[in-house]
Amino acid sequence: MRILAENADRAKILAGGQSLVPMQNLRLARPEMLVDINGIDSASFVMVDSDVLRIGALARHIQVEEARVPGPLGGLLEEVGRQVGHLPIRLRGTFCGSLAHADPAAEWCALLATAKGNVVARGLGGDRVIAADDFFDTAFTTSLALGEMVVEARLPVLSEDWRFGTAFLSRRAGDFAVVLVIALIRVVEEKVAEARIGLGGVSDRPVRARSAEAMLVGERLNRELLEHAGRAAADGVEPLGDLHGTAEFRRHLVKVLVPRALSNAWGLG
Ligand SMILES: Cc1cc2nc3c(=O)[nH]c(=O)nc-3n(C[C@H](O)[C@H](O)[C@H](O)COP(=O)(O)OP(=O)(O)OC[C@H]3O[C@@H](n4cnc5c(N)ncnc54)[C@H](O)[C@@H]3O)c2cc1C
Q1: pLDDT in tens, 96-113
Q2: What residues are paired with 128 via a beta bridge?
Q3: Are residues 25 and 136 in the same domain?
Q4: Over pLDDT 90: what percentage of the chain?
Q5: What is the bridge-based pairing of β-strands 11-14 and 33-36?
Q6: What is the helix (H) or strand (E) element at residue 128, kind and residue range?
Q7: What pTM, to 2 d.p., does this model score?
Q8: What's the rounded Cα separation, in Å, for the pair 42 and 37?
Q9: How confident is the model over 148-169, as a mean pLDDT?
Q10: pLDDT exceeds cutoff 70 at 269
């Protein structure tokens, strides 16, 4: 921590290197110093601590994917984790590195936002816990201060009344999704008691489709309602276009993928 803090304006942490090294190759990042954290074995943990899943700074994507966490969160991590790049990337890249890198289309960033997780940041002054909503500032930018490191990410373990569904569209298998949707619904007496819909690839950071979420609460889901929710979610985003998809295409994907993720969560088939 001391080396990082003393060189904060010229050093970068090297974790799995699956984003930083390609950026260095392309000369998009030119850090004067790399602080390699790969020797810190004690940072590789993935553990459930009462009702919180704790993921250490060096836990690789594959460890999180295969963590076998009890309840719906375990299945959700497996399903979302499988979408992160290719196997070699998942063997090397880290969950916390993905959060720190803050790609707006990154699966783990969307998951942290949807599941209302936290990040523990450490600097010379001590630790602070940052809620997902306060962590992602804009594309590739977080609220980490210079010299601070993510030492841990925390996700609440989901009780059995939560159900999840996901929907992704990538140009090729293993590519970043053009748009991704993670839906979480808590179902009590066959009605939605709580809903969260996280979207990646439609803004400068992961966002929630809050108007669509609100229209689901107290309802039993059916196809008509899901289509309404998809339209509400699409109306609520202002996507940017790039070479992977125009703004209109991304909006269309939100309209189509939100019902699909919700349908998977509810079990409409
Ligand atoms: C071909 C390819 C396809 C990919 N596809 C996907 C995909 O589909 N979905 C997806 O989400 N990602 C994808 N990735 C990115 C991959 O998930 C990276 O592993 C991840 O974005 C960064 O994690 P890392 O451990 O490799 O971090 P690094 O590359 O080591 O670091 C990335 C950045 O985060 C900083 N950093 C790392 N760890 C910390 C920390 N603990 N605290 C503070 N700062 C830190 C570094 O200084 C650097 O700025 C892909 C990468 C490649 C090469």
Answers
A1: 999 999 999 999 999 999
A2: 121
A3: yes
A4: 92
A5: parallel
A6: strand 126-131
A7: 0.96
A8: 11
A9: 97
A10: no
The count of domains in the chain is 2
CA distances from 148 to 3, 7, 46, 169 (A): 11, 11, 21, 34
Handedness of CA 178, 13, 43, 154 (dihedral sign): negative
CATH number of the domain within which 226 lies: 3.30.390.50
Candidates 146, 65, 67, 49; CA nearest to 98 is 65
User: Helix 72-81 vs helix 107-114: angle between axes, to the nearest 10 degrees?
Assistant: 160
Ordered alpha helix ranges (H), 106-151: 107-114, 132-135
Both tokens of 195, joined, read: 């809903």
CA distances from 20 to 30, 84, 106, 236 (A): 10, 16, 14, 32
| 170: its two tokens | 């990538």
Q: What residue owns the CA closest to ligand 1's atom 6?
A: 85
Helix, strand, coil % in the chain, rounded to nearest 5: 35, 30, 35
Report CA(241)–ligand 1 centroid distance (Å). Answer: 23
Q: Is 20 near ligand 1, meaning CB less than 6 Å away? A: yes
Last residue of a domain, which of 156, 177, 194? 156
Identity of residue 80? V
Centre of ligand 1 to C-alpha 12, Å, is 12
Strand partners, 153: 55, 119
Q: Decide whether any atom of ligand 1 lies within 6 Å of the 200 Cβ.
A: no
CB-CB neighbours of 128 under 10 Å:
15
